[in-house]
Specification:
By secondary structure, this protein is an alpha/beta fold. The protein is built from 11 helices and 14 strands. β3, α4 and β4 form a beta-alpha-beta unit. α3 crosses α4. The longest helix is centred in the last third of the chain and has 24 residues. The chain binds pyridoxal-5'-phosphate (PLP).
C-alpha cells in the first residue's frame, strides 16, 4: 500500500476545489460557540424558497440528503409498501430501505443507462416510492426531460417519485429535466438536493427536499430536533451567496470531464459518458480492474473501487484538476500499452 499521506482523494465525488473561501471565513467566527445548541433560524429554507420560487413550507432540510432520504422512507413507506430503484444506483437507497425493513425492487439498466421503461413492470399497488438519481451515481448518466415525463404521466399520483439531484449543478446536457416545473405539474415529485457536492460542504452534512406542502408537513412532524449543527446552516446560507464559485467549479469540471473522458476512451477503456463530477469505467475482467485501482493508489490517487457496493467489475473516478487527470491518464495509458 502506498503512502496515504499525500493521496489525491477521488473516491467520493466531493468538490475537488473545496468550497467558496467566504464560507470558511464566515464559519470561523462560529467556532467559539460550540458549547451552545444550534438555533435553527429557518433562514436557509427562506433563501432556498426564494431561489426556487416556492414557499418555505415546500422545503425540508436535514443533515445531508441521506438523512432527507431516510425521512422520506420513514414518513411515507408503510411496512407493507414497496420501493423501486435502479440497480447500479446510489447505494444509500438500499441501505435506508433495509434499515426500515422495506422491500425494494431493482429496475435494470440498459447499457449503463437508467431506462424508465424498465420501471413499469415492477409497479404494483404496493409501490410507494421510486428513487431516481439524476444524474445517476455511479454511472453519471441522466434521464431526460421527456423520459421522466413519460414515467410521471403513466404512474399513479399516489406514488412518490423522488428525483435525487445531488449532481444536477454539473449537468450541461440541455435535455436534462427542469424538475421544479415538473413538480408544479406532478405534485408527487419530490426533489432532493445537497450542499455536499458542488457547494463543497460534504463534511458539514446539509441536504434538503423540495416537495408539496402537505408532504413536507408530514416529514417535518417526523423529524428529530437538532438536524443541523451549529455551523452547517450558516455555511449553506453563505455558500448560496457565492454562485460565481459554483459556476467556476461547473466550468472546470466540464473541461476536465471532457478531457479525461476522451483520453480514457482513446486509450481503449470502456468509459461511460457522464453529466456529473465523476466517470464510470467498466471492465470485462475483475482482476484487471483491481490492478488499475492498485496502480493508481501506488501513484497516490485514490479512486472508488465499486466492489464495495457490489459492482465487481467497475471503477468510479471523481473528476479532479488537470494535474490529477494527467496522472491518471499516464498511469492508465501505460497499463494499456
Ligand atoms: C446520488 C446521491 N445522492 C445523495 C448523496 C449523498 O449526499 P449527502 O452528502 O447530502 O448525504 C450522494 C453522495 O454520494 C449521491 O451520490
Amino acid at each position: 500500500m502506498s503512502n496515504r499521506g499525500k493521496v489525491i482523494k477521488l473516491n467520493a465525488n466531493e468538490n475537488f476545489y473545496g468550497c467558496a473561501p467566504e464560507v470558511l471565513n464566515s464559519i470561523n467566527h462560529k467556532i467559539t460557540n460550540v458549547n451552545l445548541y444550534p438555533q435553527h433560524s429557518g433562514r436557509l429554507e427562506e433563501i432556498l424558497a426564494e431561489k426556487f420560487s416556492v414557499s418555505p413550507q415546500n422545503i425540508v432540510t436535514g443533515g445531508g440528503s441521506v438523512r432527507v432520504i431516510d425521512g422520506i422512507v420513514q414518513t411515507f413507506v408503510e411496512p407493507d409498501e414497496e420501493i423501486i430503484i435502479f440497480d447500479r444506483s446510489f447505494v444509500a437507497y438500499q441501505q435506508v430501505a433495509k434499515s426500515h425493513r422495506r422491500k425494494v425492487h431493482l429496475a435494470k439498466q440498459n447499457n449503463f443507462v437508467c431506462d424508465v421503461n424498465n420501471i413499469f413492470p415492477l409497479i404494483s399497488n404496493k409501490t410507494k416510492v421510486i428513487f431516481i438519481a439524476n444524474p445517476n451515481n455511479p454511472t453519471g448518466t441522466i434521464i431526460s426531460d421527456s423520459e421522466l415525463e413519460l414515467l410521471l404521466c403513466e404512474i399513479s399520483p399516489e406514488i412518490l417519485v423522488v428525483i435525487d439531484e445531488a449532481y444536477f449543478e454539473y449537468v450541461t446536457d440541455t435535455t436534462f429535466p427542469d424538475s421544479l416545473s415538473l413538480q408544479r405539474k406532478y405534485p408527487n415529485v419530490v426533489i432532493v438536493r445537497t450542499f455536499s457536492k458542488i457547494y463543497g460542504l460534504a463534511g458539514l452534512r446539509i441536504g434538503y427536499a423540495v416537495l408539496e406542502e402537505s408532504l413536507s408537513e408530514k416529514m417535518k412532524q417526523n423529524r428529530i430536533p437538532f438536524f443541523f449543527n451549529l455551523i452547517s446552516e450558516q455555511a449553506a446560507i453563505i455558500a448560496l451567496k457565492y454562485e460565481n464559485f459554483i459556476q467556476e467549479c461547473k466550468v472546470r469540471n466540464y473541461t476536465e470531464r471532457n478531457y479525461l473522458y476522451s483520453s480514457l476512451k482513446d486509450s481503449g477503456f470502456n468509459v461511460i459518458e457522464s453529466q456529473a463530477n465523476f466517470l464510470y469505467l467498466s471492465f470485462d475482467d475483475e482482476q484487471e480492474k483491481d490492478l488499475i485501482f492498485e496502480k493508481l493508489l501506488d501513484r497516490e490517487i485514490l479512486i472508488c473501487n465499486l466492489k464495495i457496493f457490489g459492482q465487481d467489475k467497475s471503477l468510479r473516478i471523481t473528476i479532479g484538476n488537470r494535474e490529477a487527470n494527467n496522472k491518471i491518464i499516464e498511469c492508465l495509458e501505460a497499463h494499456n500499452s
